[in-house]
Amino acid sequence: MPKLRTNRHEVSLRIWHPSIEPEDITRNLNLRADIQNRPGEIRQNRMGNPIPNSGQGTYWVHEYASSPHELETNLERIMQHLLAKKSLISEISQTGGRCELFVGIFLGDYSMGLDFRPELMSIAAELNIHLALDLYSS
After folding, report:
1. Sheet holding 98-106, edge to edge
2. pTM for the complete prediction?
3. DSSP states along the chain
4. S-S: 18 plus which of 6, 57, 110, 126, CB 3.0-4.6 Å?
5. Are 121 and 101 in contact (CB under 8 A)?
6. CA 34, CA 39: separation in Å to the nearest integer?
């Protein structure tokens, strides 16, 4: 089966939690935070307007660098790193938090289908990590 190719894709790890400190996530995952908010801090959208329901807990985001590799290859590389940090990911989920890999796919002027191997989905299930896909056309 051919590998998935897109014009461009971006992947972010997003974490929500009622109380964990953003610095603890950064240190334990060994990833920089591109966005981080503590409980009580109201986030704003790009227009400067408050985001509804923000401030109710910690919000932490790491934006992975763009890569020329296929989406599935990138997701597998990211998930292998997260498997090595499984105890933190599990703790987040077990204490009321949520971890998500957010994927923005920029289609250009064509349509496409997505097909992820069961092995990749098995890793996501083992990590209890959500996979969110947003498709953007030009």
Report:
1. 35-37, 58-63, 8-17, 98-106, 130-136
2. 0.84
3. -PPP--SEEEEEEEEEESS--HHHHHHHHT---SEEE-TTPPPB-TTSPBPTTTTSSEEEEEEPPP-SS-HHHHHHHHHHHHHTTHHHHHHHHHTT-EEEEEEEEE-TTS-------HHHHHHHHHHT-EEEEEEE--
4. 57
5. no
6. 17
Cβ(124)–Cβ(94) below 8 Å: no
- The answer to whether the CB of 48 falls within 8 A of the CB of 95 is no
Task: Provide, rounded to the nearest whole percent, the portion of the chain with pLDDT above 90.
Answer: 56
Is the per-residue pLDDT at 29 higher than 50?
yes
Q: Model confidence over 52-109: pLDDT tens digits?
A: 767 788 999 999 987 767 888 899 999 999 999 999 999 999 999 999 999 988 877 7
d(CA 116, CA 114): 7
Q: Contact at 8 Å (CB) between 55 and 37?
A: yes
Q: Read off the tokens for 26.
A: 């950064």
